[in-house]
Amino acid sequence: MDLKKRSLSMQTFFNERVDGYDNAHAGLMESKERITAALPDNTRSVLDLGAGTGLELTALFERFPDARVTAVDISEKMLEQIQTRPFGDRVTCIAGDFFEVPFGEGYDAVISTSALHHFTREDKTVLYAKILASLRPGGLFINSDWVAQTQEEEDERFVELEENPQGRSHIDTPLTIENERIALTDAGFADIEFRENVPESYTLSVARKK
Length: 210
Ligand SMILES: C[S@@+](CC[C@H](N)C(=O)[O-])C[C@H]1O[C@@H](n2cnc3c(N)ncnc32)[C@H](O)[C@@H]1O
Hints:
By secondary structure, this protein is an alpha/beta fold.
């Protein structure tokens, strides 16, 4: 399935599920909170890719009440929920596709959780280079997301996606940690680390712009 079609299917999927979304993700709150714990004390400006309803932002604004966040998401209905949160006035929302909208620049950190496991390694390299360009020198990209445990698992999911182009609209295709490392390296990131996460099927990747 091509990128554009996939993005549009994600938009429909999440626009239709916004009502039950926070309950569905209640069990994943620790994976979202670990992002905030990994941020340096001097964090002020943050770009959140696939921010959804803003679940990861509660912990972030508790630790960094003066932060300013730019939230990008293709689902305008998910973003509407962010504006209703107590920190809504500190978030600038951009409705659009990661691969199409400008991100801006000079961020202390780019964060993402549960939102980037839908792309090939090649597409991720392009996206990661765009993320790198949006960071200030020394800035961090922190991604808390699902990873495939083996290359076989990664390959099987991409086959499933190709064999069901009109079937299920949402087939997840996480990469292995090894392929995540290659994509981050090829995009130009330094000091790449993969930390333990909860659940175990997730990893917390932390990468720096030199
Ligand atoms: C599972 S939700 C995660 C939301 C939030 N980060 C959290 O952890 O609760 C994934 C989000 O990524 C967004 N998304 C998926 N593909 C996207 C794309 N190509 N461009 C922008 N947003 C996208 C979806 O609309 C959705 O809101």
